[in-house]
UniProtKB/TrEMBL annotation:
SCP2 domain sequence ranges: 19-120
Record's protein name: SCP-2 sterol transfer family protein
Origin superkingdom: Eukaryota
This protein's GO CC annotations: cytosol
Annotated source species: Tothia fuscella
Pfam families linked: SCP2
Length: 129
């Protein structure tokens, strides 16, 4: 089942991250060990619609739709536009720069949010957003 939503072009990254975690159990275990958190993303597209996805790097090492897995809540929620998320995944923008410019809002444990960039890097090499 694809996690991508055509109304949110950058959402393809969630499929790439999910596939990366599924394809390499060692990498999945390492990502859970390093991140130890559930990350939620709420993206807003050009039409003003919002949608959420999560990356569970606390227990299961999976990606899904919604604000959090059924078993828990997100440790960190990142809010940004679909366009800015695409830039973040492609590596053309840094999370810190987007945050300082007010284009990325973070709710929850901001220190755990700093552990996310290497995880998004897994999608960078495969992303064609």
């Amino acid at each position: 089942m694809s996690l991508a939503n055509p109304s949110f072009p950058s959402s393809e990254a969630f499929d790439l991250i999910n596939n990366s975690l599924k394809d390499d159990p060692k990498e999945k275990k390492d990502a859970i060990k390093k991140a130890g958190a559930i990350f939620a993303f709420t993206l807003k597209n050009k039409e003003g619609a919002s949608e959420s996805w999560y990356i569970d790097l606390k227990e299961k090492g999976e990606v899904g739709k919604g604000a959090a897995p059924e078993s828990g809540k997100a440790d960190v929620t990142l809010l940004c536009s679909d366009e800015d998320f695409g830039k973040l995944v492609r590596g053309t923008a840094k999370a810190q720069s987007l945050f300082m410019a007010g284009k990325l809002k973070i709710r929850g444990d901001i220190m755990k949010a700093t552990r996310l960039e290497p995880i998004l890097g897994k999608a960078q090499t495969k992303a064609k957003l």
